[in-house]
Amino acid sequence: MAAIIEPNERISAVHIDGLAVLKIVKHCQESLPAFVSGSLLGLVSNSVLEITHSFPFPERSSDKSDLIKTPNDAPEEESALDGHEYQLEMMKMLREVNVDNNCVGWYQSMYLGSYSTTSLLENQLSYQTDLSPNAVVLLYDPMQTAHGNLELKCLRLTKDAMQLLKSGKNQFLSPDQIFEEVPMTITNPSLVKALLYNVSTGQYDGVTHGGADGVAP
User: Fold this and answer.
1) Running DSSP on this structure, what letter comes out for residue 62?
2) Is the CA virtual torsion 114, 116, 119, 121 positive or negative?
3) 49 and 11 in contact (C-beta within 8 Å)?
4) Which of 7, 102, 163, 167 has its CA 20 to 30 A from that of 29?
5) Sequence-distant (≥ 6) Cβ neighbours of residue 178 within 8 angstroms
């Protein structure tokens, strides 16, 4: 994981690019019934966390239990990048093509709204401790989304939960005081907004008309 980013102020909202949302949805949908995760990239501006890009973490070979492993597979597994190295290499390549490469959190798929697990708690604690207190986790539910409603939540650990976990004390903490939801807004560039407007008004039909691609006369 990258170096610790000391924030000037605590974020109050999250803005995520529509393309980043589509990448998350595509990754989680294609990986069903397995649960998958990935990295979120962006920056903080005026107490708003702007998420502009996302990419998936590689699947561990141990998760593919239905495949028969042979001795020839061992060198390939040893040479494969683990999650940490893969993340660093991916951010390095994104920087070379002028894409935001600051890790600001991670995402994970969930099942029917159930997300409060030990693994999620430990991973988010690691992000908010080792990366930045403003790091967040996005949770996407492909099962509920299939019913017509986009189920996407943005969470972070509360201050009380962080203090209790760091102290190592065995004290009771109410479940509703462990995570807090951060208000999230899906944003799109101006060109995408113009395209969506044309589609909604019927001015765009995907067919070329007199040199204007997809725009009806």
Assistant:
1) G
2) positive
3) yes
4) 102
5) 116, 121, 157, 158, 161
pTM: 0.74
Per-residue pLDDT of the chain (217 residues; tens, 9 = 90+): 544 555 667 888 999 998 899 899 999 888 888 888 899 999 888 889 999 989 888 876 554 434 333 334 443 444 344 567 777 788 788 777 777 778 899 999 888 777 777 888 888 888 988 888 899 999 998 888 888 888 899 999 888 888 888 887 777 878 778 889 999 999 887 777 787 777 777 776 665 555 555 555 5
Nearest C-alpha neighbor of 137 from the set 13, 40, 35, 24:
40
Which two tokens mark 38?
Answer: 């990935």
> Which residues are CB-contacts of 145 (< 8 A; sequence separation ≥ 6)?
25, 151
| Alpha carbons 39 and 55: distance in angstroms, whole number | 6
Instruction: Name beta bridge partners: 100.
Output: none
Nearest-10 Cα torsion for 151, 156, 158, 161: 100
Q: How far is it, in rounded angstroms, from Cα 131 to Cα 207?
A: 47
H or E element that contains 104: strand 103-109
- φ, ψ of residue 86 to 5 degrees: the values are -60, -45
